[in-house]
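> example.struct
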């Protein structure tokens, strides 16, 4: 059965290490309005977009291979349920396929039934396919 969680992938010439490093450099690809830390297991960070914010805990970290984030608080003021992302998780899998590094991103719990799905799907696609991909490719390691 196909998962209904939002998912996308990036293919790059960068190394596993370079991709891993870029993903963890959240303020360089998601938003500069960032507080906290996003490099070590159990780190907590918050990204801000005006009144909107998302606070995330790093719950899984396998260097150059996997990153897991858990949303522990959020405020999405345009939604009926302003805390809609609470408890959702983001999974980053980094692996080699042929001569490319692949990054598979899945936002577990972000499903079409959620009020923010359409807006969030478009935003994630832009942040990941454009902003993060550009950072990874510029920072090839």
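> example.seq
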């Amino acid at each position: 059965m196909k998962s209904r969680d939002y998912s996308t992938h990036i293919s790059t010439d960068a190394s596993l290490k370079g991709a891993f490093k870029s993903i963890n450099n959240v303020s360089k690809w998601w938003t500069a309005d960032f507080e906290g830390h996003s490099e070590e297991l159990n780190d907590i960070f918050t990204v801000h977009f005006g009144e909107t914010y998302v606070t995330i805990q790093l719950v899984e970290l396998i260097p150059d291979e996997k990153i897991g984030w858990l949303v522990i608080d959020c405020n999405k003021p345009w939604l009926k349920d302003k805390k809609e992302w609470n408890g959702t998780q983001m999974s980053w899998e980094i692996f080699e396929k042929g001569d490319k590094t692949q990054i598979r991103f899945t936002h577990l719990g972000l499903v079409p039934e959620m009020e923010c799905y359409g807006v969030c799907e478009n935003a994630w696609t832009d942040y990941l396919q454009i902003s993060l991909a550009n950072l990874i490719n510029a920072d090839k390691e």
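> remarks
Residues 9 and 104 are 4 Å apart (CA to CA).
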